[in-house]
Amino acid sequence: MGFSANGKQYLLPEEALYLMECGNVQVFYQDLPLSIQDGFECFLSSSSVSLQQYQVFGHLKRLGYVVHRFDASSQPSSYARQLNLPQSRGARSLKRKRSDSLVPTCSHSEAHKVPDVKRRQAEEDPTLPESRPTSSQDTLGAQSPSADSNGGRPWWITDAVASHQSHEHACRRSLCWDGVIVFPDVASLRGHSSCLASPDPSLLPGGLTVGECDVKPWTRRINQREVKMSAKDRERERREHRRKWDVNRDEKVRQCRNWAEYHQLLASRQGRRSGRPEHLWQREVTPLHDHTQPISTGELLDKISVIKSTHVLEGASRLKASEEWRICFTVYQPDTVATFKKSNPGKPFAHMCICSFTGPVPDLAAIKQLSFQSGDVQIVFAVVDAGDISFYTFKDFQLPTDVYP
Amino acid sequence: VGGPWLPGDPHLLSPPPACNNGGGSSPWRGPRKSEPTMHISQCDSAPLLWHTDEVAAARSLGLVGALLGSLPRTPRQNVRLGRPLLLLPEEERFLGDCGALTAISQSDVGVREHARQVALYEETLERSYQEQQVLALQDRKAAVLRVDCEEDKRRRLETLERHFSFQRSALMVQLNTARVGPAHLSAGPASCAIRTPAADAKYQVFLDLRRRGFYLTSAGKFGGDFLVYPGDPLRFHAHFICVCVRADERVPLSDLLAAARLGSNVKKTLVLCSPHCHGGGVTYSSLQWSGMI
């Protein structure tokens, strides 16, 4: 109790009044002793210690606690607190390792300790898609796509069968050229007419006229002899041909109008096969998780959680001190009286804030600011109601998770 | 009984709770000017009574109040406390309306008066010292006489009388709880509480319940305005928790349910009191949570 200054021992007003009430101290003012009524009227006021604060002070002192006025400057800084703490703060993380056993979220033995700040390890979102495997089917593209935009027969076939389609051909051909040049396969013309029809004069520049083309001298230059194969070779050929699938039979391939589109088609097919379809991974919004990678249910739930749990000290340093709510007293445990030293009081039991039932309940900003000011010591609200005092404290609470790997 | 409640409100029990005048409750003593005045000392804007007879008088009027100070005989416990007595604002206003209140304050005295007081105090101290000296000597002699052997007694009594000295530091002094001497009346009004409509409503309810003989204390712990006892709180448990609601106030149903559940948990009935405007009576509705049928 009390403090010494200028070589003298001083008592704080609430301490003096308490000792007067216990009958241990007689206070003189101008050579006359003060009665307790005088003490109440002189020592207690809203500027020094209010009546409610003295009620709480007296209540705690009668129970045996050591009660000091709160001194914000004597609070150890967070760095100093870190050095003195016996248990590490960052040992527990919310990210559960698959190999470890259950990590408890609150492993303190003291019931009053406010849980420490939990460091969340940032999940690395797989934003970058894996590099697509290069298409190995470029070599297959030796054959030119034989289908033109008309999707019909090539223009050099002028059978009677195709004559009724000539009108449609003419209509379709009147559309703009799509950049596809189809060359006739002379070797396959064996069964057909021996000459190629002349091209459409509208396609020719200027006043060029081209007659029919005689195919015979060209066919003579092509080796059209049948390959002599044994029965086994023929069987093998048949089997391979059965397995070989003409790439041009694919509808999508026929729709490709140039090599770039064909490459895109091949790439998207490859992507889908490898599990990274481009419509998912190449856009602005990509999936949260690559489904081919293994992930535990708990981690997945963490990824999709929208509301992240927060801590009471988050954003607390930015709040400025309010006048309405401030810590009044520092309370130390009664059984430490024997080991209590003013120079080394030890860790306080609680910090007291005093209010009344007629006043407002502390809002979140006040609680944050008080917790920040108090450090790791719990804050107790002493609510005074005429003669009774009730003690309340707010405890941090983490919602339980039911999912474990 | 009028209907201050809006439709859809809980069931109105129009007869007020039965007033049992038995159990030692004091009869209603209306304001009479012949009441002995009580001296209120304002400490940090809280009304305190310091003198024992005034505290007893307040109790006889049915005002319970709350004791704040340490009990002089056993100061280091919280079960029984001593003076001063803190009055509720309604109790203070009640005493003020009775005319039984005088506010006192400490005022500065002149130099000569102060010197006179100092001289008086020192004279009292000296007289007390002399008395105590005599009593101490008697005490020691009685201790010697209690011893059995006869011859030593006379000799020891003589040496005792010759060499006895009573130290000043052994003097017992009295630490007064209340201020001694004449009270200095303060110039200001007896009660300086701010009058708000809510405070007026509470006071009306307080008056009405006091008139019916109930004892009232503060009920902040129970989420209400008053705790209503059928008799002296030292002899009874509280029966009701009173919540004062103004007639024009809309109360959300969730508040009513929370208050009713709280009351049922502590085995008290919740009573909603709403005073009629301009004097008149008070309408009471009690809520009891009966659970699912």
TrEMBL record, chain A:
Residue numbers spanned by region Disordered: 78-154
GO annotation, cellular component aspect:
tRNA-intron endonuclease complex
Question: What Pfam families does its record include?
Answer: tRNA_int_end_N2 (PF12928)
Q: Which domain of life is it from?
A: Eukaryota
Biased composition range(s): Basic and acidic residues:
109-123
Transit peptide as UniProt keyword: no
Q: Which GO terms fall under biological process for this protein?
A: tRNA-type intron splice site recognition and cleavage
Biased composition (Polar residues) is annotated at 78-87, 132-149
Instruction: Tell me which InterPro entries the record gives.
Output: tRNA_splic_suSen54 (IPR024337), tRNA_splic_suSen54_N (IPR024336)
Describe the location of the tRNA-splicing endonuclease subunit Sen54 N-terminal domain by residue ranges. Answer: 1-29
Q: Which UniProt keywords apply?
A: tRNA processing
Give the family from UniProt.
Belongs to the SEN54 family.
Q: What is this protein called?
A: TSEN54 tRNA splicing endonuclease subunit
List the source organism.
Answer: Hippocampus comes (Tiger tail seahorse)
User: What taxonomic classification does the UniProt entry list for its organism?
Assistant: Eukaryota, Metazoa, Chordata, Craniata, Vertebrata
TrEMBL record, chain B:
> Where's it found, cell-wise?
Nucleus, Nucleolus
Residues of the signal sequence?
none
What enzyme class is recorded for this protein? lyase
Give a yes or no for keyword tRNA processing in this entry: yes
Q: Where is the tRNA intron endonuclease catalytic domain?
A: 201-279
* UniProt-listed GO biological process terms: mRNA processing; tRNA-type intron splice site recognition and cleavage
- Molecular-function GO terms, alphabetical: nucleic acid binding; tRNA-intron lyase activity
- Chain intervals for the UniProt region annotation (Disordered): 1-37
Organism domain of life: Eukaryota
Q: What functional role does this protein have?
A: Constitutes one of the two catalytic subunit of the tRNA-splicing endonuclease complex, a complex responsible for identification and cleavage of the splice sites in pre-tRNA. It cleaves pre-tRNA at the 5'- and 3'-splice sites to release the intron. The products are an intron and two tRNA half-molecules bearing 2',3'-cyclic phosphate and 5'-OH termini. There are no conserved sequences at the splice sites, but the intron is invariably located at the same site in the gene, placing the splice sites an invariant distance from the constant structural features of the tRNA body.
| Family that this chain belongs to | Belongs to the tRNA-intron endonuclease family.
Recorded protein name is tRNA-splicing endonuclease subunit Sen34
